[in-house]
């Protein structure tokens, strides 16, 4: 086995895994605060990317102006979702909230295409997708400059959000809300304000993820399926853990690339698309709550 090629595949998988972790983080934030699995997160990623690139192409604005405008749009969208969808369904069964986010996903997808069209659009972030020459010359390893830069952006954002929600007053309030809504209300934590902040942050996360994945694969409807890619990450890491989203993303990213290269030829290829789900299914049999999830003990 060529050790340089192995590390090349592994590094590429880890870089993709950081981007998966960012998408998964949007799920984790909302689930921690409200107990809702936001099936519309993928649609929010698509809406953010399509809005940003359409502002650039239609109105002739620079990307540096389009990004803050889109950020404001996504924050407003997140706040509107919390106010119009989540808040009226407080204390409803979890399945009701889940079905509401499914309907919300279709609504956001349709709204994005109604406003900006359904054609594939190119998003240029000014980052070249070329190999890093120094790594090629010194280690004979091909690593994309775009993948490394995108992973670095995601890593900084994930670290900043992890610090924000673990060390700040709002973060402590979020953990209290996640543990017990009624107890949080009893000690004076404004539950609806916390939800609004989390949905606004989720909109911002969707913008960053949408721009990076849109620049890599083109801004198109398939961006909505990124949410499905985050499911194995959440299963491995735990639905309520920010560190779990990071570790789960790295595991899924690395394992799918290695499986495609080393196991794919034995089974005819195409393993990258379904291997993460098989891995997640096997993991469910061993530790259903995830690596960083809390064990649930019920009296019988």
Q: Could you explain how this protein is built, in words?
A:
It contains 13 helices and no strands. The protein has 300 residues and is mainly α. It has one domain (3-286): ABC transporter involved in vitamin B12 uptake, BtuC (Orthogonal Bundle). Helix 2 (41-59) runs parallel beside helix 4. It is globular, with a radius of gyration of 20 Å. The model has no long low-confidence stretch (mean pLDDT 82). The longest helix is centred in the N-terminal third of the chain and has 32 residues, at 3-34.
CATH architecture: Orthogonal Bundle
Major sheet: none
Write down the CATH class. Answer: Mainly Alpha
Can you tell me the CATH topology? ABC transporter involved in vitamin B12 uptake, BtuC
Q: Give the distance, in angstroms, between the N- and C-terminal Cα atoms.
A: 52 Å
Q: What is the strand tally?
A: 0
Mean pLDDT: 82
Silhouette = globular
Give the percentage of residues in beta strands.
Answer: under 5%
**Order of secondary-structure elements:** HHHHHHHHHHHHH
What class, by secondary structure content? mainly alpha
Radius of gyration, rounded? Answer: 20 Å
**Which assembly state applies to the chains in this document?**
single chain
State the helicity in percent bands: over 70%
Number of domains: 1
Q: Runs with pLDDT <50, length 5+? A: none
Structure annotation, total helices: 13
């Amino acid at each position: 086995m060529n050790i340089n090629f192995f590390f090349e595949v592994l590094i590429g998988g880890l870089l993709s895994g950081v981007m998966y972790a960012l998408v998964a983080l949007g799920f984790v934030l909302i689930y921690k605060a409200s107990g809702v699995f936001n099936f519309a997160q993928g649609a929010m990623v698509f809406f953010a990317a399509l809005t940003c690139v359409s502002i650039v192409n239609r109105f002739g604005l620079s990307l540096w102006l389009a990004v803050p405008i889109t950020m404001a749009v996504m924050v407003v969208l997140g706040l509107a979702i919390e106010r119009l969808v989540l808040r009226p369904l407080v204390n409803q069964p979890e399945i009701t909230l889940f079905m509401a986010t499914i309907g919300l996903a279709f609504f956001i997808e349709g709204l994005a295409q109604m406003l900006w069209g359904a054609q594939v659009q190119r998003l240029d972030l000014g980052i070249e997708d070329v190999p890093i020459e120094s790594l090629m010359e010194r280690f004979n390893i091909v690593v994309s400059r775009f993948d490394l830069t995108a992973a670095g952006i995601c890593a900084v954002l994930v670290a900043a959000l992890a610090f924000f929600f673990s060390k700040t007053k709002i973060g402590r309030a979020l953990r209290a809300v996640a543990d017990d809504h009624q107890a949080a209300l009893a000690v004076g934590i404004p539950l609806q304000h916390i939800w609004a902040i989390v949905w606004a942050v989720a909109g911002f996360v969707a913008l960053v993820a949408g721009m990076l994945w849109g620049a890599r694969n083109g801004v198109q409807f398939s961006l909505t399926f990124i949410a499905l890619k985050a499911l194995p990450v959440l299963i491995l890491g735990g639905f309520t853990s920010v560190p779990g989203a990071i570790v789960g993303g790295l595991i899924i990213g690395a394992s799918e690339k290695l499986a495609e290269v080393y196991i794919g030829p034995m089974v005819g290829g195409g393993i990258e698309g379904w291997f993460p789900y098989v891995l997640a299914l096997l993991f469910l049999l061993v530790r259903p709550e995830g690596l960083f999830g809390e064990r649930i003990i019920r009296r019988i």
